[in-house]
Amino acid sequence: MLQARRVFGRKLRVCGIHTSWSTIGDGEFFCPGCGGDRNYRRRTGRRRFTVVGVPLLPRGLAGPVVECAACHTRFGTDVLDHPTTGRFSAMLRDAVHTVALAVLASGGTSSRTVRETAVATVRAAGLDDCTEDQLTSLIEALAADTGRFITDAAPYGAALAIELHEALEPLAPHLAPAGRESILLQGARIALADGPYSPAEREVLTTVGAALQLCEDDTARLLATARTPF
Fold first, then answer.
1. pTM to 2 decimals?
2. pLDDT tens digits, 77-110
3. Which H or E run contains 102?
4. Residue 43: which of 30, 26, 59, 18 has the closest Cα?
5. How far apart are the first and last CA of the chain?
6. How many other C-beta atoms lie within 10 A of the C-beta of residue 229?
C-alpha cells in the first residue's frame, strides 16, 4: 500500500512497494491488448518496500510476466499459448493439407475428380503450388514408409491417424466451432467427389472430427450435411 503526503500542493510518496523488473527473454506473440502480433519481453521482478524512494525491505518476487513491447501491458505467461497470426495461418494450412492426404489415402487416388477436388481444397487453404503429383507422391511415400499398400478397401493406417491428431489437436482450441466444422466438411467433400463415403473414408473423417474436438453426433450430422448440394 502506498502512503503519500501533500507538500506545497503536490503529493509526495512517502512509502510503498516498488517492483524492479529484469528481462529474461524475448520473442514474438499475439498481444490481446494490441490485437496483433508484437514483440514481447519475458520479465521477472523483485518487490521491495520503499520509504521516500529508498528500497529498504524485500517483499518477494513478481512474475514471470510477458510484457508487450508496443503497449507495455503485462500478461501472464499463458498468453504465449496463443499462436501468432503467422503461426496460426501455417497451422491451418497444414491441417487442411493433412486432412486432404488422409482422405485420399483412405479412398484411393484413382479418381481424377477426387484428386482435383483435393488439390483445389489445399490451394484454397493457402498452398498455391499444390499439385496432384505432389499429393500422390506423398501418399506413395507414406505407403512405402509404413510398409502398407493403400487401396480402396485397406484402412488408412496408424501413421495417418497420428498425423491427423498432431495437425488438428493443437489447432482446435484456437478455432471457433464453425472453423472446426469447416475443416471436416472440406475433407468430406473430397471423399464425396466420386460417390458415397467408403467405410475407410468414413473412418478417417470420424478421426478428423474427434481430433477437432467435435462430438460424435456433430460429426455424423456434418458428414450427412456434406451430401446435400450447396
1. 0.77
2. 999 999 999 999 999 999 999 999 999 988 888 8
3. helix 85-107
4. 26
5. 63
6. 3
